[in-house]
Amino acid sequence: MAVTGGILVMFLVLHMVGNLKIFLGAEDFNHYAHWLRTVGEPAVPHRTVLTLTEVVLGLAVVLHIWSATSLARRARAARPVKYHSKKKSHAHGYATHTMRYGGVIVLLFIIWHLLDLTFFVVNPKGSDATPYERVVADFDPSRWYITIWYVLAVLLVGLHLWHGVWSAFNSLGLRSRRNEKSLRLLAGALSVVIALGFIAAPVSITFGWVS
Question: Which residues cross the membrane (predicted)?
Fold first, then answer.
């Protein structure tokens, strides 16, 4: 679960950096979107690298969900009788208790995101527009409810990351008494940066700062 989570975190960082290119203007953003489909040419056919990346990410998502389900079942089997009282976690209590439901919402968000900007099924501009035009149309001020949905979903992604990255440090044996505080700060900072990075573009478009 930690390894697949790490793969997904690396993808989120790279995806966030690419999204921020929208602030450089339509030409730069469209060039970036075109580059994603032509990287590796002419050594490999068109879209080969992107397709392989999508396959790896798809497998990582499936294995991540399978790992989460398997661990939950093992935990229940290990202690079929519930604790009389639960000790509340202070730093990560809310994140811990909402990981399961947050994960489901994140999965629904991924499906919507693919239908919107990969398959163009729910995008207002459809397949005939440029990548820049599709993103701007998505978060047009008249579609403020989409922006709110996007922001809430990204905040849940950030919450999921906060607890997930911290748990990964534990699972991979990287945590010690000496670096525990630093790793907590790193997990929190990474989650905040990724969340803000993804929120920046839709909010800017909705308020007219990018058009």
Answer: 49-72, 101-122, 142-162, 183-210
Angle between helices 48-78 and 2-19 (to 10 degrees): 140
Is residue 160, in this structure, part of any structural domain at all? Answer: yes
What are the structure tokens assigned to 183, written together? 């790793």
Distance between CA atoms of residues 26 and 41, nearest Å: 23
Give the up-direction half-sphere exposure of residue 138: CA atoms within 13 A in the CB hemisphere: 28
**C-alpha dihedral (186, 190, 196, 200), degrees to nearest 10:** 140
- pTM recorded for the entire structure: 0.86
Q: Is 2 exposed, middle or buried (0-12, 13-18, 19+ CB in 10 A)?
A: middle
Confidence of residue 103 (pLDDT cuts 50, 70, 90): confident
- Would residue 152 count as lying in a domain? yes
- Model confidence over 56-88: pLDDT tens digits? 999 999 999 899 889 878 878 887 666 555 555
C-alpha closest to that of 158 among 95, 203, 109: 95
CA dist., res. 34 & res. 68, Å (int): 35
For 65, the domain range is 2-79+96-206
